[in-house]
């Protein structure tokens, strides 16, 4: 690592720099979406890219998510690597049919002869005080679909490198960007050698209990571990990074060490990603577990108005409550 190669960037800027690098490196990379060009995206994630690479590489599209994804599939068939932005999480559903019946199936349908190197960027989650349809966490819907890779960074460094890896993938990647972390700054080494895209990472070592999270909740879990440490509790924090595939081996190694697991995500607990992790770890670590695997997440209800979202979103207290319940067994 050289000093010159390390920059401290907000997560949104790290994605911007990653997209810029991809556009510079591969002429087949295209960026498409509503307001991604002249405006630079509603969160300014694509700011300046159309100015520098032109309207044929960074394309402002009509407000038609199904058409955007359908066009990206056609471009991928012609050898391009489109990076599609869905402006907000709740806007993805008009394109859901294209994603699950075409994009996810094309590789298998063609017996492996057709690649689908499409990245779909989705700002997701709450915490920004937005109106209806702007604060969803639909990751489990996509992780359930065979043929899709589903990832979410929690740091600026991961945002930069995971985007590079997603664009280079010959399989479609749903790239969930935690919008309330867009302005959190972190160090990015643009000359680093990144680990595999779908490998979980130990963020904080611990011995008493494992907290597993991804995207926006990793920061909350780190804060919970710090608060628990003041009471003499040693919590290990895992950043899962990928919801499909899931790095069960790293989770298992941690749980075999700590004997307890709490899975945390913003999405509703009911049928959430945490359910799959809880079931797998119960199967794999049955004789190591000192307590049932617990889950912390949103409620099984439509996302509430902005004034109530702090009650809806899992925060420090709900995570620590689950930790206490697990340690009480």
Automatic annotation (TrEMBL):
InterPro entries: THDP-binding (IPR029061), Transketo_C/PFOR_II (IPR009014), Transketolase-like_Pyr-bd (IPR005475), Transketolase_C (IPR033248). Keywords: Oxidoreductase. Its EC number is 1.2.4.4. The keyword Oxidoreductase applies. SMART domains: Transket_pyr. Residues 9-184 form the Transketolase-like pyrimidine-binding domain. It is an enzyme of class 1 (oxidoreductase). Gene3D superfamilies: 3.40.50.920, 3.40.50.970. It comes from the Bacteria. Its cofactor is thiamine diphosphate. This is 3-methyl-2-oxobutanoate dehydrogenase (2-methylpropanoyl-transferring).
